[in-house]
Amino acid sequence: MSGSTRADLARPGVTRDRILTVTGATKRFGAVTALSHVDFWVDEGEVVALVGDNGAGKSTLVKLLAGVHAPDSGTLEFDGSDVSLADPADAHDLGIATVFQDLALCDNLDVVANVWLGRELVAEGRLDEVEMEQRTWSLLRDLSARIPSVRDHVSTLSGGQRQTVAIARSLVGEPKIVILDEPTAALGVAQTAEVLNLIERLRERGHGVVLVSHNMADVMAVADRVAVLRLGRNNGVYNVAEITTETLLAAITGAIEPPPSEPRAARDGVISLADRGRRRRRRPDDRL
Description:
Blueprint: H1 6-10, E1 18-29, E2 32-43, E3 47-51, H2 58-65, E4 73-78, E5 81-83, H3 88-94, E6 96-99, H4 111-115, E7 122-123, E8 126-127, H5 129-142, H6 159-170, E9 177-181, H7 189-204, E10 208-212, H8 216-222, E11 225-230, E12 233-239, H9 245-253, H10 273-281
């Protein structure tokens, strides 16, 4: 998808291969329903932002995709085939890489060791340090990353550089989808710009990217499409080229109903998004 703009990708005439489709995902934790009949999809070379207020279900959906949790109901298709994820290793083997907000980096190890941690290359019974270093540099060059030396300890790197290392590690194994959980949280302006550039590079490489973020400026800057969750349910899917930040905020807070043309899987007994919006407006106690 290199060379395509976000506006091009949002046009109806532009087609891309579907990588991931979630249909009717429901997840309960005891009496709490974290997700209720959620639909979600990702195409190749596309950045999909997943947004919503605290408690909207974003983290639960990400953990379903990462293999941390299994849905109580619903289906997951990957490259057109129904799949189930028993654990994170299944998700990784399938081609779904997740970079959680804590990054899970080892500060006392250098960049190479962090990138290959748990998947070290071995030659003749020894760690192949040369090959791992060369591949690490190759990954960082593809991402146009600014890392002074791959032999520096991660503890010496800035927040943006640490995020770069975590993203580079996620690309080992060439995943088709990369999920980034709040990648710019607590970063400064320059470091945020660096991470957003990395996301653009991931799209250019053809990866489907899921960006979980509370920062609407970041979402509008790099996303092609935005999926809004509210109270564990879908509350709109929007092409970024066609909306404003105000529209997203209204969808997040429930001030507007989702577009009536939003595609959803047919399910018996489930209220459509448009119907739910109309019913919501008739409730006098439903105020912001």
